[in-house]
Design brief:
It contains one helix and eight strands. 12% of the residues lie in helices and 53% in strands. By secondary structure, it is mostly beta strands. It has a single domain, classed as Lipocalin, CATH 2.40.128.
Length: 123
């Protein structure tokens, strides 16, 4: 019986833990995101205000509109898509925050395959 009580106690402690999510801090600012593309680590810098995000990648810039669903989730869509793939909106959800970084997951709206990443606020 004591083993069951210990397991219940440990489970109740774990279920009360919620990761930090200070999403409001990350709604605006300048950010850096690094991703493995093929065999190279590529860096994207982006500047976000409440409704617009400008991405800088490989010397080019691109503007997207932002629609916030709640404090930690938003939909991003290219303002001037160059092809059909860029016409698709992306759903982004901030999962955790810590200091100047946040972990997020993202997927194309309507698709179930999700990917994860980490962004760092640099300004």
């Amino acid at each position: 019986m004591p083993k069951i009580a210990i397991l219940f106690f440990l489970f109740s402690l774990y279920s009360c833990y919620e990761p930090e999510r200070n999403c409001d801090y990350f709604k605006t600012g300048t950010f850096k995101f690094e991703a493995l593309v093929g065999t190279e680590i590529e860096t994207t810098t982006f500047v976000r205000n409440d409704s617009i995000e400008i991405d800088y990648f490989r010397g080019k810039s691109d503007t997207s509109s932002i629609r916030w669903i709640n404090n930690c989730e938003y939909i991003i869509k290219k303002v001037n898509p160059k092809n059909r793939a860029e016409e698709k909106a992306v759903h982004i959800k901030i999962l955790t925050t810590e200091g100047e970084t946040y972990n997020f997951e993202y997927n194309i709206v309507g698709q179930s395959r999700k990917q994860k990443g980490t962004a760092q606020k640099i300004k």
